[in-house]
Amino acid sequence: NAGVMQNPRHLVRRRGQEARLRCSPMKGHSHVYWYRQLPEEGLKFMVYLQKENIIDESGMPKERFSAEFPKEGPSILRIQQVVRGDSAAYFCASSREEGNTIYFGEGSWLTVV
Amino acid sequence: DAKTTQPPSMDCAEGRAANLPCNHSTISGNEYVYWYRQIHSQGPQYIIHGLKNNETNEMASLIITEDRKSSTLILPHATLRDTAVYYCIALSPHGSGNTGKLIFGQGTTLQVKP
Known about the structure:
The complex is a heterodimer.
Chain A: E1 5-7, E2 10-13, E3 19-24, E4 31-37, E5 43-50, E6 53-56, E7 65-68, E8 75-79, E9 88-95, E10 103-104, E11 108-112
Parallel strand pairs in A: 2-11
Antiparallel strand pairs in A: 1-3, 3-8, 4-5, 4-9, 5-6, 7-8, 9-10, 9-11
Chain B: E1 9-13, E2 18-23, E3 32-38, E4 45-50, E5 55-56, E6 61-64, E7 70-75, E8 84-91, E9 108-113
Parallel strand pairs in B: 1-9
Antiparallel strand pairs in B: 2-7, 3-4, 3-8, 5-6, 6-7, 8-9
């Protein structure tokens, strides 16, 4: 049973470009969470989505960041006009509809140069 | 969700049991205690969770006090690969307006030494 799959694992972008991070949840999971971990800092919740719906985006920066989880395909975290401060590890997690246990992917490391 | 308190760091000798404490004195009746760990440069890994009873799986044991105000994660035979940051999180189940999202604190950095 494949775990949460994230790609790309490493991404380098120049300032002002766009970054798209993809997350395929575990089979049978319909809830997706995104977290960010800045260098030498803790894990911070960003957004929680179910299929086609954003449920909780209280941790998302107000500008440049967006997330979606379409009916078909992976969840996407999109960062427009990246700045150096966006350099971080971005972790996706998923859970079943009825359960609580959340499982994480291995992360996508974004470096902005 | 209730706040949890953990020591910032601990050492453990390889092959010995690692006992990681967590205080959650304000935990409510329906909140579970979850443990995750994060090995350097990897994603957080689920370890175990419980509500009232002690739990054991292939990775660890979870001991929850009768009053549920504290718990201990036990790694019975720590190895060097268990060196990681361990997080104790109190979490309400889905529903009733709870999203089930995990809020990570600073955790306990466990260093397993040869």
